[in-house]
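Bumping with the actual sequence this time:
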Amino acid sequence: MQTNSNYILVDTPKALELALLNLRQSKVLSIDTESSGYYTYYPRVCLIQINSRGKNYLIDPLRISNLSSLGPLFLDPEILKIFHSAQDDIKALKRDFSYEFVNVADTMISSRLLSMEQSSLSYLVEYYHKVTLSKVEQKSNWETRPLQKQQLRYAASDTAYLESIWLKMEEELKKRNLLDEAKSEFAFTAQEAYVAKEGEGFSLAKFPDILNFTPLERRKILELLRYRDEKAKRINKASFRVFGNDKLAQSVKEEPNEEKCMEWFGKKDGAEIYKLLISEYNDPIEASELTKRHGEDLNEEEDKKFQLAKKWRLRIMRIRRMEHSLLPSNKQLIAILKANPQNVEELRGLKIFSDWKVENYGPSLIAALSGSNYDSLLQKLTPIRSKEAFIAKRKKKQAKQQAEG
């Protein structure tokens, strides 16, 4: 066990046993993780940070093969687990270690409910503690060993402030009558099952400047992305580190010969990419196929319900004066209208919403989907900020978008 004033590096089974002596006595744990996703195709957790009673434990899962002893901590209902963006960390920990979680708090969800200017951890630390977190190691390679001191200090700082921030947020949520809603969202996040993503690990629509290519060029880019994705899987390397997007775009625009392709991509890959570039394609990709949104594949009756659901959502947003990130997404609304729940319990069974959303939004949403009037069902909803603050923030956002556009 390596110790200094900033962190305790836990990288042996014995060090883990010693750390657990303190962790098991704790009532509050602040938790974060560092993963390899910026460097590998298949991300894995490379470091688990747990702050307990003023001590920062940095637990190394690449050096300790069995971390099952942490599981009971995460399942203990008497221990509060604080995260920032709990969904990301919890899903990663479920994926790699099959942990389960209860009694969770999330400072990112809290920041959105409290209508703060930003929801990043660095913003919250600056706001509450007047401390600027370093971002130098944000894209560090966390698979490398030994980890460097600057990496460890960076990792420790991510949990050092979470407990004090949460305590301040908890008080504010209480004052605004939002704590029950927040806790329900936390519980929903903790219970969400990890589902492995299937299919292509890329999106043609997100390729840089894709609308500036011709339909045939888009088809060629798609084929090159598929080739890159398959190679990235084989060598477990982040796709953009296999071949850069700039080089793929250049090869499609300039149509290099085979020799030039080999120069750019290597002998074997260059030969395969050249074949893809000169192949004949009868299925060019129109711009309209890239800009399809959720709901465009609905039948007439489903689309009618979708429009009703979106009007309902707009009513909720205006009544509560809240950001769209806290409201049901198009994907969620479509899943609900396709399932066609007839009552609140059927909606709850879909496990799309938190219990708070089911109880407070469910009756009016079901009424909206059936075309019934639901005004009386919205009367008890609590605005999360003043009308003036809502309008001011919306105008500020619009001004920023216009400036950027």
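The tokens above came from a reply further down the thread. Confidence is low (pLDDT under 50) at residues 1-5.
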